[in-house]
Amino acid sequence: MAIVVIMPKQGQSVESCIITDSKKKGDIVAKGDILFTYETDKASFEEVSPEDGVILECLYKEGDEVPVLNDMMVIGQPGEDYIALLGEPAPTQEPSGTAESNVQPVLAQIDETSHVPGTQAGDKLVFVSPRASNLAEKEALDPTRLAGSGPNGRVIEKDVLAVLESRPDMTPLARKMAAAEGLQPQAQGTGLAGTARAIDLKPVASAVSADDYEDKKLSNMRKLIAKAMYTSLQNSAQLTHHLGADARRIQELRKKVKKAMDAGTLTTNVTLNDMVCFAVIKALKQYPNVNSHFLGDNMRLFNKVHLGLAVDTDRGLMVPVVRKADDMSIIELANQFKEIANACRKGGIAPELLSSEAATFTVSNLGNYGVEIFTPVINLPQSAILGVNTIVPRPKDLGDGVYGFVPYIGLSLTYDHRALDGGEATRFLKQIAVEIENLELDIF
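Predicted structure:
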């Protein structure tokens, strides 16, 4: 019996997902085979076949954004009637009676040499649907320059809309010039509210650089990260303090960890980052105002430390949270960090653990990359974030007028000045250094 496979709902805050890869209609699948992969704004997932069969219908394709719980595909046996199982047609599929699907496409003939001087390409036929052609003419776009996503590369209305979404509004004069001369506005216009004026127009591609660059579409996750970073900087008063902590103590502990692991008396690899985070948790318990969310008219102070840890992945930066980190031993904390980091890199992290509201404070460590100083950006509504830098030798008074070089680990605290005063932020940062320099681990 045919069954319908739906787009799963991954977390309460997820409303839609992007299809990154999918089986096609007619493909034979076995139980457990991957039917399609999809991503939310923070993580990627795989959906497997619940039984053996053939894909009788596939309602969406790669790149489509699909609302959760919508029908994705139908699996059954060849020739099986499945029409009754489906409700309304998929939102992204155009009805069979529209001009986009039934009317013959306009055939536009262009000479590629007129767009890229110096090339020897011959004539090329570009199919443009009527709706795409009408919209492109209205918006002063040349549809023959667009990459078509319709059947056989046909340029459809969706392709034109995708370009318009990233293009600023134009003044009437700019629109007229763009249509007449084949020009396009820059990313940001100089008119009111970013409107493009005539002086902002430029050729689509110059003769010199027409073939030495590539326009790459941002991933869904990259767009979300960019929006979050911009929003954070635009909607908070961020200031960063930098301070170094004597790293001799944690380096000594790290050597002990390695020896214990070699001897088989310790099975968890406790890293320097684990130790720094452990020290941060101790400092947060002494400065509860930092372990907070700034909500405009009030501060939300948390009794427990829910620590966010920035993790670099192939898909972008993720910040999963370890809840109630202050209740954990250093071994439990280290194991949790490794578990959530691996889940992020594999794309299997729960969306709820990636919400900035889930964490009360975040640590971002760039020390492994040799970064000596940087300014981390706060994950709103959190009140602060700590950046951990690499360890470098610095001179220090060893007593009796004797100076020597000792290893220092750089600490960069960015805080929301609306939530915390500079004095309190400085004392908190100093407390982190004190905890690092006097850290005790009961694991040996």
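Summary: The domain at 99-203 is CATH 4.10.320.10 (Dihydrolipoamide Transferase).
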